């Protein structure tokens, strides 16, 4: 039953007020502290909710959990809650996790806001992940997947940080996060494949006779090389866009976000484009200092100091080196 939102707002369970922060901190400490330190003060709790809700939902919709029908029904319920709340009504009884979505929408007073774009795009991402589990995807689907995510993350950033100084929309608005998502997919490629998610186009796999278990093969490494090349281009253009953002907090958040993926990109290059199941060194002190220095130089923006990553490392046929 749908009730008037005015008659049933903020009916979350007592003691659950810290749930968004706890889920966020557990899922990503960098995200947690970015929100805590840089988000507009009146929107910190909503920022936690925005991450925690989809962290919770993504875990339930994971390829290896539950039944396909159960996941479809769960996702349909979440989409219904989204639509009902944006129509100004309440979905009735919801779980503490679903309450995070209800509260987010209730607190969103802007028409066609960045938050609404984020919520709708992330729902589309969840829907795609449920549908494509265990099958190969096309290049067009992969491109749209990246676009949905990069648009969601970028719009969320501008919604929560320095919103009065958000730059005008143009084609370069999403490039930095495009690059970050490409590198993110490469970083998680081995784990994703084992879980049933294939982020390499099926046509490329078929035409190049690629085995998804042989990450050291030249055709697979060539795919990784080309993706790194594309990410480099996105980072170059995206960095210039972030530099022109008026809000210093927003610039800092943007540079910090892409720095960790720039570090990951350099590591993949150094590995000869051979992907690994894990990269524990990304959480090391050395990596942290590199990222901190990178962010500092980006924020200071010294004209004569280039932040270009340098020439991309060449792809070498490892069989010729033996």
Protein described:
- By secondary structure, the chain is an all-alpha fold.
- The chain folds into two domains: 1-133, no CATH class; 168-299, no CATH class.
- Helices cover 63% and strands 1% of the residues.
- The protein is built from 14 helices and two strands, in the order βααααβαααααααααα.
- It has helices at residues 19-27, 29-38, 44-61, 68-86, 96-106, 114-132, 139-160, 175-187, 189-195, 202-207, 218-243, 248-270, 285-300, 318-321, and strands spanning 3-4, 89-90.
- Strands 1-2 form a two-stranded antiparallel ribbon.
- The longest helix has 26 residues, at 218-243.
Shape: globular
Supply the number of helical segments.
Answer: 14
Could you tell me the number of beta strands? 2
Assign the structural class, choosing from mainly alpha, mainly beta, alpha/beta, alpha+beta, or little secondary structure: mainly alpha
Average of pLDDT: 90
The low-confidence runs, each spanning 5 or more residues with pLDDT under 50, are 1-15
First-to-last CA distance = 69 Å
Using only C-alpha atoms, the radius of gyration works out to 21 Å
The number of domains is 2
- What's the order of the H and E elements? EHHHHEHHHHHHHHHH
- As laid out across the biggest beta sheet, the strand order is 1-2
How can the largest sheet be summarized? 2 strands, antiparallel
| Beta fraction | under 5%
Helix content: 55-70%
